[in-house]
Amino acid sequence: MLLLLLLLLLLLLLVLLLVLLPPLAMLRQQRSQGPRLSWLAGLQYRVAWEVLCWAAAWQQWRLEQSTLHVGQSQQQTLRWCLKEDQGPRCSLRGSTDMTTFRNHLPLTKATQAQEEESEGKLLPPTSNQHHGEASLQATLLGLAALNKAYPEVLAPGGMACVTPTSPWPHPLPWPWHALSQVSCPGSKAPGALLLEALRSPGLRALAAGTAVELLDIFLGLEANGEELAEAIAAGNPGAPLPRRAAELREALEQGPRGLALRLWPKMQVAVTLDAGGQAEAVAALGALWCQGLAFFSPAYAASGGVMGLNLWPEQPHGVYILTPGAPLIELLPVREGDREEAAATVLLAEAQKGKEYELVLTDHASLTRCCLGDVVQVVGAYNQCPVVRFVGRLGQTLSVRGEDMSEDVFSEALGRAVVQWPGAKLLDHGCAESSILDSSGGSAPHYEVFVALRGLRNLSEENRDKLDHCLQEVSPCYKSLRFRGSVGPARVHLVGQGAFRELREALAACPSSGFPPEMPRVLRHRHLAQLLQSRVVS
């Protein structure tokens, strides 16, 4: 009994320590002009780190148990979904048979942008982070994996988040705010967050909600560099930073390539959350501003929640474990070529290496089996759970004559074309079928393609034609339709700087917008396509 009381007393002291230390440490640091952390802040960091290690070890044990017995784990998830359901299908609560579950709940399709938008209805705003066990597990294990691969990233002042949204799927509980971050996301404008990061030359990691948001940050840094330098030179009261302002100006004068490492010489990794449509932003950042840095996404997230978690920061391309917990995940095989859906789903333990599957999600809130449109390929296994990489999205298919040009095939063709445009680097792109913009004008239907480029201010007709030739190379069906004249040549338009940022702002204002903000490549709504059309410069 005495031992229990002593343990409770110790726990209470730790809680009081963590509650009181932030303001005390802040006060101490304001008084101290030295570069070293105060002993109070250091103590707070050590306590927070010990709590994080303990929580991550617990989540790792839970992951091992659930992935070793994935069939049992998915049955438990099914029972939980049925138990929580309060809707008209609550009669299924007594059954945990997966076949019965599938028969009673037919598959439904996720719409491209929800019909409520076109009807002018407003839906409640969605949360910008996925609260729940899966998101907490992905966050804790992601932090542990990041620390293992880059040990100094989570040291005090080692990481800064430059966007209001965070790459971590679950908000960090308050004891762990002491870990690494120069500032806490969610409370400041991007400009203020970037300014704080620029004042910290010793950063080892840069965090942003998604890769496209980080790309916007660097584009904004270049556009507003002088204003930021003046703000840094002014500094805080009594603490001007003219030398750092001069370093910023000098780094910007040398151009975008390697800018992050010039600003933060100790930088090692950029942390962003993987979602649909992020690959081009990652490629552009890696080739220019973040050249020499690794990229790490702690989780793969979709509109329904966290789908998978990443334990391998050192891998150049994100791979994710599909976990058997809530929400319930099934896999729908897709056929080769046209990727038409197969008849029945499979569970996680039944996934085959090398095969492609569409993710199917069942959430307890609505008890609806929804095909998300996200296609993944199985590249390995973690115990009995599949390890996957993201391939593309079925909803991002172009089809003016039934050719079904998939997202990854079009991106491959566009990549081939951009390589042939001298000095050009692709930053972003969007497409629309000609019927959306009524641009056929009596001619054959075609693709309208909008691109944002770096290093090229004008597109010649010869360069524009190269995309159509590359599309014919990657798609025999498209080539046949072009040969017969059933489909017209793709029309390529260069848009000005900031056009896609405005598109993302318009998407964020849509009722169907959620987090993570997927970047659509095929625009189905006229007002979105017209927005890019109005920003064409060549």
UniProtKB/TrEMBL annotation:
GO molecular function, one term: acid-amino acid ligase activity
UniProt feature coiled coil, ranges: none
Domain GH3 C-terminal: start-end pairs: 437-506
Annotated GH3 domain residues: 221-286
Chain segments carrying region Disordered: 111-130
Chain ranges of the GH3 middle domain: 320-393
Pfam families: GH3_C (PF23572), GH3_M (PF23571), GH3_N_vert (PF25146)
GO cellular component terms attached to this protein's record: cytoplasm
PANTHER family per record: GH3 DOMAIN-CONTAINING PROTEIN
The name this protein goes by in its record: GH3 domain containing
Organism: Rousettus aegyptiacus
